[in-house]
Amino acid sequence: MPGVEPTILKPSTSKVGFAPNDAAPQDTIRKLSGHYDEGLGKGEVGIRHGARKAIRAEVRQPRCGTVSRRIVENSIFVCCTMALTIYALVADDFRLMSTPRSADPVFNWMVVLCIVVFGIECILSVLGKADYLWSFFFWLDIISTGSLVLDITVVADTLFASQQGGSEVRGGRAAKIGAKAGRVVRVLRLVRILKLYKAYYEAKALERRKRHEKNRPGQDEDDWDDEDVDAMKEKFNQPGKESQVGKKLSELTTRRVICIIMAMMLGLQILEVDETDKAAFSSLYGAEIVWRKFTLMRENGNSSLVGEKRDAYEKSLLKYIYYHNWFAREDSDKYCPMQDCAGLYYSQLFWVGIVGSDAAEVQTYAQNASLQHSNIGAFEKEYARVDGIYNYGFMPTEAQAIIKSEWTIECQHSNEKVSRGISLLSQDIEGLVSHKVSCPQEELRSQEYMYIYPRGMTSAQLEDWYLAFYFDLRPFTRAESMYNIINTMNILILLVSVSLVFANDANRLIVHPVERMIKRVESIRDNPLIAMKMADEEFKLEEIAKARQKRAKKEYVRFILGELMQCRFCGSTDDEPMETVILEKTII
Predict the structure, then answer these.
(1) Backbone angles phi, psi at 210, to 5 degrees
(2) DSSP character string of 478-533
(3) Could you report the per-residue pLDDT of 434-454, keeping only the tens digit for each?
(4) How far does CA 338 lie from the centroid of its chain?
(5) 444 CB contacts (<8 Å, ≥6 apart)?
(6) Crossing angle of helices 556-565/530-554, nearest 10°?
(7) More confident residue, 50 or 271
(8) How many Cβ atoms are within 10 Å of 142's Cβ, its own excluded?
């Protein structure tokens, strides 16, 4: 290098130029760097200065960034976010499956707490991690955190609850869309399990680090394993230090797995036809029949046919109530001994009444609609005791008394309408009804009841008054929530296991060999004589591995299980070494 006196670095003192962690004088480093820059071209000097500037910028990270990074990586904070992540995945289903509507405020406050904590986590990650803002994982956290808003019952009911008024059809469709959107949102929220994967990966790295500290030279040779190939005492070879290649490859592998599985799950949720759109239900057709009978009875109120029309109306109403017998599901052995009753399905009728805008008018129609002539005992004898393909079943005496009573239960609706009717669940019935429900909209969640009304009315009649029926969907909601939790756990296990398997394969085949090569090169650069020691250690490990492989083949069952777990049992047995292994051995 013209004009510069060459600096000779001996092996024992060469750490000044190559190991910045050593306590070397700063003026010596500047002198060596200055001499090196003089021999470089203009562009190369610019690159070197740019790299040095980037290192200084990293070292001089603002204090708020350092504190933020330490908080995000703190084990206590990670455990808290992990617990809240698991809670966010299953809490809404647990709420619907196990608690009444009165417990919803507690879950709403917990959702708000999750949003606040996850929001703080995102802000701290932006401040403490240079490559987090606008990254793939940044958007994953934003989407999953934002989806929690739909778990607040007030928001969900406002957006997706079925409306009552002049747009019932559109309200019913909105409720179906809301249910599907809820399932899609739950799938999107699964992206937070990346945090679980990261926690597991770091815990595994810590375990390897502790094991490495225990495995010192002089121990039993059988304690050596594949993770200890480069287990030396030099400072440059500390375990758990991830290279840039490994970090990038692990991130990309996890990202691809997440995208593929999420795309599959979202496609399955969105691109499917709802079973409820396949055909009309008996509840809709039955409501139409009852409504027509009631209308004919009112039209013939002053004629000699009024008695006949009332009998027809009351018989049709009893058939409708018994066909969707609520008690046949609660105790099928007692109230449906012939089987094949309403207990086969997840929803049963429990509320019948009149809905309208004028309270006085609703009261008049409710008095006219209540049963007056029917003998429920005679009806059960004629219809319920017939062993048919589908049976009506029986009802307890308390329920029969409610059916024959006046329609006096008054409920207020959110659309300024009022309803008046009867509820089979308005009284405690030992062994059957423990949670009384008089007004469905006030005492049940929107997911826990189905609102049925006649569809043969005009829009004017719908705005004025009409018959209404409420079905109990709590058995369906509980079953759906239970399966949702199981499905969520299955997806979580699938995502984590596949990500771990892919990352492990990439580490085993590419990342770890490359990292070992980098460490070997750095070691030989600092002390060329250590290459002989590396060769001796490599030979010893090869012999130990061969001996352990022979012993493993003798244990046939263990060998077969190991091959199956590594998916190598049915594959080809290629004994040729990998190119990375050849290059690694060539170095020493």
Answers:
(1) -65, -40
(2) HHHHHHHHHHHHHHHHHHHHHHHHHHHHHIIIIIHHHHHHHHHHHHHHH-TTHHHH
(3) 889 999 989 999 889 999 999
(4) 41
(5) 101, 437, 474
(6) 110
(7) 271
(8) 14
Q: DSSP state, 424? A: T
* Per-residue tokens: 49: 């200065």
Nearest CA-CA partner of 413 in 448, 451, 371, 447: 451
Q: β-strand 465-472 against 418-423: which pairing, if any?
A: unpaired
In eight-state DSSP terms, residue 576 is: P
For 518, list phi and psi in degrees, rounded to 5. -60, -45
Calpha distance 293→319 (Å, rounded): 12
Report the alpha-carbon distance of residue 365 to residue 516 in Å, rounded. 86
Whole-angstrom Cα distance, residue 27 to residue 33?
Answer: 10
Name the β-bridge partners of 419. 355, 411
How many of the other CB atoms lie within 10 Å of CB of 61? 14
DSSP state of 389: S
3-class SS string, 426-484: CCCECCCECCCCCCHHHHCCHHHEEEECCCCCCHHHHHHEEEEEEEECHHHHHHHHHHH
**Per DSSP, what are the bridge partners of residue 352?**
422, 469
Tokens of 392: 């009506």
Torsion of CA 180, 185, 190, 191, to 10 degrees: 140
By three-state DSSP, how is residue 385 classified?
Answer: coil
**What residues have CB less than 8 Å from 18, skipping those under 6 apart?**
522, 525, 526
> Whats the size of the chain, residue-wise?
588
Handedness of CA 566, 570, 571, 577 (dihedral sign): positive
DSSP secondary structure string, 402-416?
A: HHHS---EEEE-TTS
CA angle 557, 561, 563 (to 5 degrees): 115
Q: Report the alpha-carbon distance of residue 588 to residue 583 in Å, rounded.
A: 9
HSE-up (13 A, CA, CB side) for residue 85: 23
Largest CA distance in the chain: 127
Read off the pLDDT band of 17 (50, 70, 90): very low
Distance, in Å, from the CA atom of 286 to the CA atom of 320, rounded to the nearest integer, reads 6
Q: Is the pLDDT of residue 31 over 70?
A: no
Question: Taking residues 319-327, what's their average pLDDT?
Answer: 93
Q: Rounded to two decimals, what is the model's pTM?
A: 0.71
Q: State in Å, rounded, how far the first CA of the chain is from the last one.
A: 30
Between CA 65 and CA 528 the distance in angstroms is 40
In 315-464, the DSSP E strands lie at: 348-356, 409-412, 418-423, 449-452
pLDDT, residue 550, reads 72
What whole-number distance in Å separates Cα of residue 95 and Cα of residue 82?
A: 19
> CA–CA distance from 475 to each of 22, 338, 347, 453 (Å)?
69, 21, 7, 21
- The sign one gets for the Cα dihedral 224, 226, 232, 235 is negative
